[in-house]
Design brief:
InterPro entries (chain A): Metalloprtase-TldD/E_C (IPR045569), Metalloprtase-TldD/E_cen_dom (IPR045570), Metalloprtase-TldD/E_N (IPR002510), Peptidase_U62_metallo (IPR051463), TldD (IPR025502), TldD/PmbA_N (IPR035068), TldD/PmbA_sf (IPR036059)
Pfam family, one (chain A): PmbA_TldD_1st
Strand content of chain B: 35-45%
CATH class of the largest domain in chain A: Alpha Beta
Number of strands of chain A: 23
Number of domains of chain A: 2
GO molecular function (chain A): metallopeptidase activity
Distance between the termini of chain A: 71 Å
Structural class of chain A: alpha+beta
Largest interface: A-B, 77 and 81 residues
Radius of gyration of chain B: 24 Å
Oligomer: heterodimer
CATH topology of the largest domain in chain A: PmbA/TldD fold
Radius of gyration of chain A: 24 Å
Largest sheet of chain B: 7 strands, antiparallel
CATH architecture of the largest domain in chain B: 2-Layer Sandwich
Structural class of chain B: alpha+beta
Helix content of chain B: 10-25%
Shape of chain B: globular
CATH class of the largest domain in chain B: Alpha Beta
Largest sheet of chain A: 7 strands, mixed
GO biological process, one term (chain A): proteolysis
Helix content of chain A: 10-25%
Number of helices of chain B: 11
Number of strands of chain B: 22
Keywords (chain A): Hydrolase, Metalloprotease, Protease
CATH topology of the largest domain in chain B: PmbA/TldD fold
């Protein structure tokens, strides 16, 4: 197909070959599209080609009931002119349709062409994750085995487990980015996730649910080690059985200890979103203008790190073709920086942190988190618990959300216990915790030395776009936070 | 209209072709769906165009069935690659994948005689006038809406923007049991999200919107902008309140989510899995006698226009057939507090040994799930002012945050903001508090239902007041 133009680019990698050979793109066509995109006076244009293959297998009531596979291919074309973005996409990659989309996006500007397309320079990318092939028969058989094992382990855990659903979803996302500033990058991003959902029912007909799961940008062998199907299945079953005996969560302001790992969703909601550069450029974030100021206790250091091997939120390059990095957001309680993409770094005259992400070729990139976590402190987790007279120990959470403008955030505990006189006592029902982003972390009085990242289940939504993310935290004590239960 | 007919034939024949190919490949039954849409969206901020998107997309989905001893094996595929190779992969992938699935005694398409569709033209879901609004006017509507919000009060100096969206979508479904259905829907809407700031520097956002199937039914951009401004302004100076038990009044926009849980708990999928507090409760009292909740996929509304004429327009949740290819219908799910019907599709009905209530929802990928059409809580007679007026001290909820609703146990805990009620009057804004209770109790503790039922989307619930909830705060 386009092998002639393919040879123009040295050091071609497999990602590129996929687009050039299989989908018939050529360097010449990319340049023509970018030229067309800049034809009405835009200052910058980029093309984002994406081909995603996803597979989902689900076992339900002991039967493999669902098997589905999806293929999505398309290109999004963006043109920037000042603060304005013109955007068009197409799922037809013929040169006619690509050029038409480029002309549509170009119309955000109106004037003569002022910018030329620069020669492409390829972004050098690390290899943070294995490059797997598209699901083969062998892989499907292996995946079926995993969900069968999960199903069995959950049922074997306790006779009160009456319903089990186990599923495995994975996708392979190939991207190629070419921009008028010479950016040229490509990547192949695997993503896998095993999910277990169980229902427990006791003799008194009390019911409870339990969920668990994990994965990352990993190959299937990830699930052969510690993170086995049995590990996740037992975790889901354990949570459900525990909830059968849960008492009402307390209501009101109290001391709260958050366990390590997924409770780091606190950081994602309380500070992460508020530090995305677009909100701060527009001064619509409660954190706007607070760089250099104290926004957390001095024990708190928070980073966003897209370079962790195999992690769900990691990326070799962001969706604008920039390498990802480790960005310090809060250092010893002082707000240090924002997460930025090309548009915000240009307009705000600040460094680009490689945080431009998008849900798909049908969406415009914006600054997003990758893996967001708090660094270790010096406290022993058991000392932290011992220090609490009466409070809540929350070790697992469902989702959370935040109102960027007033800073109020919530996150909902799915596994929590009362702490009475320094001892962890009764499990409590799920409850929503609420706080104020720029204030909440000022009440962090102890930080454990047991940093853990989540199991690889996070999906973050912003402006209707979902992207996979990671969170993490050591055990942390907050001297006050409002717990939304019904008890005393 | 001629072009519509041509293109309709093209889409339906493509879907029919996919079904035929699946049968050739050995499937005994197959079902293909096609989605096609055109989208326009513009975002304005501080009077300037910030983002403008114009695009279209198409995709196909396929489900195949293979009978086996005691049941069927089934699998599904979807693709946006409509090239010859892409379509071959769509069929081949589904057939291959079905081989690895287990035998499910309840899987399979509905019986031949069950298929059908409401009259597509009578449902009035598509209006050309949405497509015909020029881009400049679309931009202008968003700009006027934001300008009205920004000009309303000097405490509004910033904005998260305003937008205008327009789309039209075509959906087709063809299966091997003789069903072929197709319909188009149009949509347009705009909104503004101004930010108010008080002397202390604290910011509060507010937003409001108008949406419609026909351009004729859009509200005035200025009116919507001013409502958005008022919604931001009334949150300024919000404080916390002490933890207590009190009456909680839900404004329609939050009552919708609360009462929508009645339908979520009646979801056949959750019922057969024992994953709902309503499992085994069919025919029993699950809410107060004042609660009647209806799901209706057939609603068409008569709108009075300024020129005195009437425009008939289908609801946002209206469609001619459900995700199984069965005609949509009206279902009284909760009648005077009794769980009368469940939200069932063909599969969940078979699992429960019942008849489907035609609530299947079908996306591009996978088997049909459960999804209703339009829904509403039957209104009461009290005005919202009367409902608030009877509360000596309580909470008026304008916004909820979070995911703390557990339909298995009924446990309910959400972050909220709103206004505090003192002596029957809205006294001051409150925030950073939670409300909690158990839905099983809450549905029996609805002490008032308003007369203010208004469909602004597919679901509508009037103002409701719930007694005995816990507010957690300072």
């Amino acid at each position: 197909m386009a092998s002639a133009s393919y040879s123009l680019l040295p050091e071609i990698t497999d990602h590129k070959r996929y687009f050039f050979e299989k989908l018939g793109l050529s360097e010449r066509l990319l340049e023509r599209c970018l030229g067309e995109a800049l034809s009405a006076g835009g200052e910058f244009a980029d093309l984002y080609f994406e081909a995603v293959t996803s597979t989902s297998l689900g076992m339900d009531e002991g039967i493999v009931k669902t098997a589905s596979q999806g293929i999505s291919v398309g290109c999004g074309i963006r043109v920037l002119s000042g603060e304005r973005t013109g955007f068009a996409y197409t799922d037809d990659l013929s040169s006619d349709r690509l050029l038409k989309a480029a002309r549509t996006a170009a119309l955000i500007a109106s004037g003569p062409q002022i910018e030329r397309v620069q020669g492409f320079t390829e972004t050098r990318t690390p290899q943070l994750y294995p490059v797997a092939g598209v699901s083969s028969d062998v892989e499907i058989a292996a995946k079926l085995k995993l969900i069968e094992r999960a199903d069995k382990a959950a049922r074997d855990f306790d006779p009160r487990i009456v319903q089990v659903r186990a599923s495995i979803n994975d996708e392979l996302r190939r991207i190629l980015i070419a921009a008028s500033d010479g950016t040229f990058a490509s990547d192949t991003q695997p993503l896998a996730r095993l999910n277990i959902f169980v229902i427990a029912k006791d003799e008194q007909n009390n019911m409870a649910r339990g969920t668990s799961g994990g994965g990352g940008r990993v190959a299937l062998d990830f699930f052969t080690g510690d993170k086995s199907p049995e590990h996740f299945a037992r975790e889901a079953a354990r949570t459900a059985i525990l909830q059968l005996g849960a008492v009402a969560a307390p209501a009101g302001e109290m001391e709260v200890v958050l366990g390590p790992g997924w409770p780091g969703v606190l950081l994602h909601e309380a500070v992460g979103h508020g530090l995305e550069a677009d909100f701060n450029r527009k001064k619509t974030s409660a954190f706007a203008g607070l760089i250099g100021q104290q926004v957390a206790s001095s024990k708190v250091t928070v980073v966003d790190n897209g370079t962790m091997p195999g992690r769900r939120g990691s990326l070799n390059v962001d969706d604008e073709g920039n390498p990802t990095q480790e960005t310090v957001l809060i250092e010893n309680g002082i707000l240090r920086g924002y997460l930025s993409d090309k548009l915000s770094s240009r307009l705000m005259k600040m460094p680009n942190t490689g945080s431009g992400r998008r849900e798909s070729y049908q969406a415009i990139p914006m600054p997003r988190m990758t893996n967001t976590y708090m660094l270790n402190g010096e406290d022993q987790p058991e000392d932290i618990l011992k220090s609490v007279k009466r409070g809540l120990y929350a070790v697992n959470f469902g989702g959370g959300s935040v109102d960027i403008t007033n800073g109020k955030f919530v996150f909902t505990a799915s596994e929590a216990y009362l702490i009475e006189d320094g001892k962890v006592t009764a499990p409590v029902k799920g409850a929503t915790l609420i706080g104020n982003g720029p204030e909440a972390l000022k009440y962090v009085s102890m930080v454990g030395n047991d940093l853990a990242l989540d199991e690889g289940i996070g999906t973050c939504g912003k402006a209707g776009q979902s992207v996979p993310v990671g969170v993490g935290m050591p055990t942390v004590k907050l001297d006050r936070m409002t717990v939304g239960g019904t008890g005393r | 209209m001629a072009t519509e007919t041509d293109s309709k034939t093209e889409w339906q024949s493509l879907a029919a072709d996919i079904v035929a190919r699946a049968l050739q490949a050995g499937a005994t039954d197959a079902e293909a769906v096609g989605f096609e849409s055109e989208e326009f969206s513009v975002n304005i901020r501080l009077g300037q165009v910030e983002q403008l998107t114009e695009s279209g997309s198409r995709a196909l989905g396929l489900r195949v069935f293979f009978p086996s001893q005691g049941g069927q094996r089934t699998a599904s595929t979807s693709t946006s690659d409509l090239s010859r190779e892409g379509l071959e992969q769509l069929v081949r992938g589904a057939v291959e994948l079905a081989k690895v699935t287990g035998i499910d005694p309840f899987a399979g398409l509905p019986e031949r005689e069950a298929f059908g569709s409401q009259n597509v033209d009578e449902l009035a879901l598509y209006f050309d006038d949405v497509h015909d609004i020029p881009a400049a006017e679309r931009i202008d509507i968003a700009r006027r809406c934001e300008a009205a919000a920004m000009g309303f009060d000097t405490r509004i100096q910033n904005s998260r923007g305003a937008d205008f969206d327009a789309s039209n979508a075509r959906q087709v479904m063809v299966n091997s049991r003789g069903f072929a259905g197709e319909y188009r829907r149009s949509y347009c809407g705009f909104s503004a999200a101004p930010i108010a700031q008080d002397a202390s520097g604290a910011m509060q956002g507010g937003s409001w919107y108008s949406s419609a199937r026909s351009a004729k039914l859009l509200d005035s951009p200025e009116e919507i902008g001013i409502i958005a401004a008022k919604r931001a302004l009334r949150r300024l100076g919000a404080r916390r309140v002490p933890t207590q038990k009190c009456s909680v009044v839900f404004a329609p926009e939050t009552a919708r989510g609360l009462m929508g849980n009645l339908l979520n708990a009646a979801d056949g999928d959750a019922i057969y899995r024992n994953a709902s507090m309503f499992a085994g409760k069919l025919g029993e009292q699950v809410a107060g006698e004042n609660i009647t909740m209806v799901d209706d996929g057939t609603m068409v509304f008569d709108h009075a226009l300024a020129d005195g004429s009437t425009l008939r327009v289908g609801g946002f949740g209206t469609s001619p057939f459900d995700g199984d290819g069965l005609p949509t219908r009206r279902t009284v799910v909760i009648e005077r507090g009794v769980l009368k019907e469940l939200m069932l599709n063909t599969y969940t009905a078979r699992k429960l040994g019942m008849q489907t209530t035609h609530k299947a929802s079908r996306g591009l990928a996978g088997a049909p799930g459960i999804g209703g059409g339009n829904y509403f809580l039957e209104p009461g007679t009290a005005t919202p002012e009367q409902i608030i007026g009877d509360v000596p001290s309580g909470l008026y909820v304008l916004q909820t945050m979070g995911t703390g609703v557990n339909l298995v146990t009924g446990d309910y805990s959400l972050g909220v903001s709103g206004l505090w009620i003192e002596n029957g009057e809205l006294a001051y804004p409150v925030e950073e508090i939670t409300i909690a209770g158990n839905l099983k109790d809450m549905f029996r503790s609805v002490s008032a239902i308003g007369n203010d039922l208004e469909f602004r989307g597919s679901g509508a619930v009037p103002t409701v007041r719930v007694e005995g909830m816990t507010v957690a705060g300072s």
